[in-house]
Inverse folding.
């Protein structure tokens, strides 16, 4: 951990000390931190941006129309160096799609990587809704629009339970006897360390109510989708093989307030740039 990161965690350490959490347990917890890029919607369309919510949908001619609504594009070359520990392509644009619905055993989004310099053509942003369902159109119309600015941040776990392989009962995170207190301290000091933003690339997944890691939940749903014939395998049952590609906190979308989208992928697929292997889940507590 660099000295700059150690300094950023000072509010966390001070609060943990005030609550009597042993210093060794605090340091073990902080050692689990991951770098991430947080993307914030800007009102100023003239400054440097790493991407944008909405905008024209531009795809190579041989790419089929996506089956989910267009959310955002991210210019990978514009992300700050070392912003994440993910094996992302060094350039090109990452296009994120998601439908804000909860359907069991089905991926609710897609990701497309458009290589740098690829020839692209405009597409119909409403092609995912061929039946012109009015409610779907109303929800999509309130998806955010505008430029995204990036900063490099750090991310700590928001969850405190896991289900060990082969077991059915949940247990607290192994090796972290004070994880409940530490998760709460993380929430209380987050604004001082890494304030929340509308989108996050890498790091730990978060949502309105967290007990289990949303990435673990998504991996489990992906396995169920394979079993049901709704998604193609293979799917690893080792949760360590899965990573968070992106989170979107869709708090202001009309009719879906408080929803969160998680795009997850197996690290091996990400390294091989198999973005069709991204699985997408939505958390929403209406």
């Amino acid at each position: 951990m660099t000295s700059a990161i150690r300094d950023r965690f000072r509010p966390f350490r001070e609060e943990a000390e005030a609550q009597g959490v042993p210093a060794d347990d605090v340091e073990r917890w902080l050692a689990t931190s991951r770098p991430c890029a947080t993307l914030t919607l800007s009102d100023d369309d003239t400054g440097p941006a790493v991407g944008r919510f909405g905008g024209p949908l531009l795809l190579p001619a041989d790419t089929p129309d996506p089956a989910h609504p267009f959310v955002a594009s991210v210019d990978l070359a514009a992300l700050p160096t070392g912003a994440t520990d993910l094996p992302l392509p060094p350039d090109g644009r990452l296009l994120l799609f998601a439908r804000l619905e909860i359907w069991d055993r089905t991926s609710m989004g897609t990701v497309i990587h458009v290589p740098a310099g690829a020839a692209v053509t405009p597409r119909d942003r409403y092609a995912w809704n061929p039946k012109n369902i009015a409610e779907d159109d109303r929800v999509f119309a309130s998806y955010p629009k505008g430029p995204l600015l990036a900063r490099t941040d750090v991310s700590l776990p928001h969850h405190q339970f896991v289900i060990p392989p082969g077991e059915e009962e949940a247990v607290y995170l192994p090796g972290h006897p004070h994880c409940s207190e530490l998760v709460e301290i993380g929430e209380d000091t987050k604004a001082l360390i890494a304030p929340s933003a509308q989108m996050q690339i890498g790091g730990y997944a978060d949502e309105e109510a967290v007990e289990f890691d949303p990435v673990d939940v998504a991996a489990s749903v992906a396995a169920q989708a394979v079993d049901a014939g709704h998604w193609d395998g293979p799917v690893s049952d080792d949760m360590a093989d899965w990573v968070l590609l992106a989170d979107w906190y869709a708090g202001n979308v009309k009719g879906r307030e408080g929803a969160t989208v998680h795009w997850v992928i197996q690290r091996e697929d990400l390294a091989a740039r198999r973005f069709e292997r991204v699985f997408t889940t939505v958390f929403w507590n209406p």
In short: The mean pLDDT is 93. Residues 159 and 211 are 5 Å apart (CA to CA).
